[in-house]
């Protein structure tokens, strides 16, 4: 595991060098011996990057983004919450905060009463804007996700209506 943390994906490294403006040489700030040691270190890292497989590069890119505090959508929110996960023993705190940040939900119809099938089809048509045949086919495929990417308030309203009709609904 420790060898994975010292390797940087080639694409990320190239993107870093290509997109960043030229900087003064490090030798201006340090002695030449230190600069040579850093150059050798960078050459070693570059050689290790070239030896990685595609899967290893992908895994490392994810690990590298997490270590930098980046997620798929950009930098993490700064403030007190970003300092908390770095404390020892708070690894589960990061998972809890990601679960709490979820804003889009999927509504899954698990099962329903056969007597209420027509009412459920009508309700599914109302919030999915599907035609009668499409809504009927969707309801008959139980268990099925009937709506994706719904906000919490809208999802709660839909779930309440479907449960009143006798359906078992899960929020994912």
Automatic annotation (TrEMBL):
One of its GO terms (molecular function) is structural constituent of ribosome. One of its GO terms (biological process) is translation. Keywords: Ribonucleoprotein, Ribosomal protein. It comes from the Eukaryota. Residues 105-171 form the Large ribosomal subunit protein bL12 C-terminal domain. The gene is LOC18611297. The keyword Ribosomal protein applies. One of its GO terms (cellular component) is ribosome. The lineage of its organism: Eukaryota, Viridiplantae, Streptophyta, Embryophyta, Tracheophyta. It holds the Pfam family Ribosomal_L12. This is 50S ribosomal protein L7/L12. It comes from Theobroma cacao (Cacao). Belongs to the bacterial ribosomal protein bL12 family. The keyword Ribosomal protein applies. HAMAP family: Ribosomal_bL12. InterPro entries: Ribosomal_bL12 (IPR000206), Ribosomal_bL12_C (IPR013823), Ribosomal_bL12_C/ClpS-like (IPR014719).
């Amino acid at each position: 595991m420790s060898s994975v943390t010292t390797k940087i994906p080639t694409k990320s490294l190239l993107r870093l060098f290509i997109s960043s403006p030229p900087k003064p040489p490090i030798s201006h700030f340090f002695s030449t011996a230190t600069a040579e040691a850093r150059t050798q270190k960078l050459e070693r890292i570059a050689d290790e990057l070239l030896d990685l497989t595609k899967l290893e590069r992908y895994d490392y890119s994810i690990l590298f983004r997490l270590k930098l505090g980046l997620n798929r959508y950009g930098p993490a929110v700064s403030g007190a919450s970003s300092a908390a996960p770095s404390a020892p023993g708070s690894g589960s705190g990061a998972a809890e905060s990601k679960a709490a940040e979820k804003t889009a939900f999927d509504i899954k119809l698990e099962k329903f009463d056969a007597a209420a099938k027509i009412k459920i089809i009508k309700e599914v048509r109302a919030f999915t804007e599907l035609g009668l045949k499409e809504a009927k086919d969707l309801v008959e495929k139980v268990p099925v996700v009937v709506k994706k990417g719904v906000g919490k308030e809208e999802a709660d309203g839909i779930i309440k209506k479907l449960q009143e009709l006798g359906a078992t609904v899960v929020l994912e």
